[in-house]
Amino acid sequence: MQNAVELKNVSCVFGTVHAVDHISLEVLAGEFFSLLGPSGSGKTTCLRLIAGFERPSSGSIVLLGKDAASLPPYAREVNTVFQDYALFPHMSVLDNVAYALMVRGIGRLERHRRALELLEMVKLRGMEKRRPAELSGGQRQRVALARALVNKPRILLLDEPLGALDLKLREEMQIELKSLQRQLGITFVYVTHDQSEALSMSDRVAVFNRGRIEQLDSPKKLYEYPETEFVARFVGSANVLAGKELGLDGGKFAIRPERIRIEPGRISGTNSLVGRLIDVHFLGSQTRYEVTLVNNSTIRMTVVAPAGGEAGLEAGSEVTLTWNPGSLRKLREGEA
Ligand code: ATP
Fold it and tell me: Residues with Cβ within 6 A of ligand 1?
């Protein structure tokens, strides 16, 4: 299968800031690919490089097999959906969606037919005469999506498109976006700082940190096999311990909170540590425990267990934490 996007050793430098620092990645055609990372890690710059709004300082960008270096944004087979929607306030929903077709000189009847088709797809039929100001945030985002899809781009770039929505609407739109992407078979390159959003929607995720990719993997692999401390902490939550705390050789190890068993009292054995329970948070289906180690009280461990097994686990009491050695992940050096 042809790659939709290839970045080869791409850097983008603004003055002294290395916004994107020697990045290489390949996005497969039809893939839902996310760029995940904290604010300022270079995700948006990476997307703007693909769109052609920024030029790389070095490296090359290939889109659908063609070198993109000399292609201006409008000549690339990509469209972008921004977080702030960027709709035309004075135009109706229908005209907003049909705009790109008008620019291309497509006749009124045909462009309205196509725009209505898209509005149907994003479940906005009946709203075509309204202005953006007369819509909710979620509806505006759908108009932006329909507008970006109307001229059938092969690749859609989405920059935090759900960032302005409240949690419930955000979760509904995540499901709709994913199903729309499947239905259309278009490649999505999706920027987000929300790890649960990236995990739930993507085929693969590139985790960004300070302009570099720390790890590029499927959501499941990222969660199960984080390679660096940064990834272990940013994707889900993790306990990171020095090998010597665990009686192991140097280096650092990560273990997920739900992979640790917690029992009241001091129980001796291997693959276990004794601690003091400092906090118990009831979360509904689960309970989260915060524990400091008895032999090193500066180390804090988080344990998550199904609710219902709290007998004897009160704040202040001594507890034993146990795990299966197969749940420990050795981390390589990275910038935490
Ligand atoms: P956010 O989630 O906050 O949008 P991001 O991961 O998308 O963050 P970028 O917007 O790509 O990060 O920014 C990466 C770095 O490059 C930041 O330090 C930013 O200040 C810097 N930067 C981005 N664009 C420019 C520019 N046009 N001029 C100067 N510096 C820039």
Answer: 14, 17, 19, 37, 39-45, 193
Q: Whose CA is nearest to atom 3 of ligand 1?
A: 39
* Partner residues linked to 281 by β-bridges: 288
Could you tell me which of 66, 36, 284 has the C-alpha nearest to residue 158? 36
* CATH number of the domain enclosing 39: 3.40.50.300
Query: Which residue minimizes the CA distance to atom 29 of ligand 1?
Result: 14
Task: Kindly list the distances between the CA atom of residue 294 and the CA atoms of 46, 66, 161, 276, 327, in Å, as whole numbers in the listed order.
Answer: 45, 60, 46, 6, 22
Question: Could you identify the atom of ligand 1 that is nearest to the CA of residue 42?
Answer: 11
Angstrom CA distances, 217 to 34, 80, 213, 220, 332, stand at 10, 24, 11, 8, 16
Q: What is the pTM of this model?
A: 0.90
Q: How does pLDDT run across 39-85, given as a tens digit for each residue?
A: 999 999 999 999 999 999 999 999 999 999 889 998 898 999 887 76
Burial class (CB in 10 A: 0-12, 13-18, 19+), 64: middle
CA distance 331 to 238: 12
How many angstroms separate the CA atoms of 57 and 181, rounded? 32
- If you average pLDDT over residues 222-246, what whole number do you get? 93
CA–centroid distance, 43 to ligand 1, in Å, is 8
- Asked, for residue 336, whether it belongs to a domain, the answer is no
- How many Å lie between the centroid of ligand 1 and the Cα of residue 303? 35
CA 29 to ligand 1 centroid distance, Å? 27
Q: How much distance in Å is there from the Cα of 41 to the middle of ligand 1? A: 7
Same domain, 164 and 38: yes
Structural domain ending residue among the three candidates 209, 232, 255 = 232
**Ligand 1 mean position to 211 CA, how many Å?**
9
Q: Which domain holds residue 242?
A: 237-331
